[in-house]
Design goal:
heterodimer; A: about 190 residues; mainly alpha; B: about 170 residues; flat
Amino acid sequence: MDALDENACVARAQAGNMEAFRVLVDRHRERAYTLALRLTGVPADAEEVAQDAFVRAWRALPGFRGEAAFGTWLHRIVSRLALDRRERLVRRAQHETPTAEPPEIVEPASALSDPPGGDDAGSRLARLLEGLPERARAAVVLYYYEDRSVAEVARTLGVPEGTVKTLLSRARATLRESWSREEARAR
Amino acid sequence: MNPDRTPEDDALDPSLRALWRAADAVTRAPAGFDERLFVRLEREAPARVVAAAADPALVAWAWPALPWWVRAAGECHVVLALAVAGALVAWPTAWSLGASYLGAGGLALARALDQGLAAAAGLLLGPLAAPRIQLALALCVSPALGWVSLRAARAAESWARRGGVARAAFVRAR
């Protein structure tokens, strides 16, 4: 589907045509889900985030002005929802009373590794992301995977650009180290 | 790109991106993703489906399908800039007052601009005094009025959806 077709689909979906929206879902499903999975690290959460993002996109479509491509707009919704979800889980865990059972926050990277120590690309990527703190992982995913600029990452994460640069710089150092370990293991 | 990058970072990037592509190639949304999504959509947003069915002509008027000059006219900053320009042309005293803060030079410049504008207005708008020309102008303006009506209709639709009016109407209609 080229940009023209996509614009036509967006226009029809804006007017409420569900079949046109189905075409858009079909086109963007995998990438939206993958982005959600990279950010949340948990397949079940990733599906919920991706679905919520499509539902929000459907609701907000009448106001969509086409200033960015539909995919870019959708990915912004996905990343915002995924980050909000993680923040909510962390906040909830912090505010739980000590007597109560803390909610289980699955370590994102470990949930991605299947099987542990596996050698496929998904497992390798999971192992690389494993060493990164939450915010740094989000910054790396948005910067590398989403090809966002530092300014856009800063806006999405709600932090100053300098913080994003620091996060990326530290993340690169950790990634380089993990990458060297991976390479050594492969040899 | 980030200026804080090192040559090591540049060496790492291609490997990282290749790994990412390879990982993406094997990542698939879970089975039944679409079915679950569309069950939710059909449950949550019936009002939009009904609105579309009632007015298929709306498709042609959807925002991204409109030409850039129509969309530009709908941008808040364009409207604001035109309003400010209009106000400045209509009330030269306002900008003369502003120019007075710049001293005698500013005042002289403001006076010269004012005289230039008055001359240009006389030259450009003089022929428009004829009724036939005024009618032609009114006809030219009518698409803009149509566009304003569309925006108003959209705003009302959005307001109704937010307020649940459309949903309530839909339920009553059934």
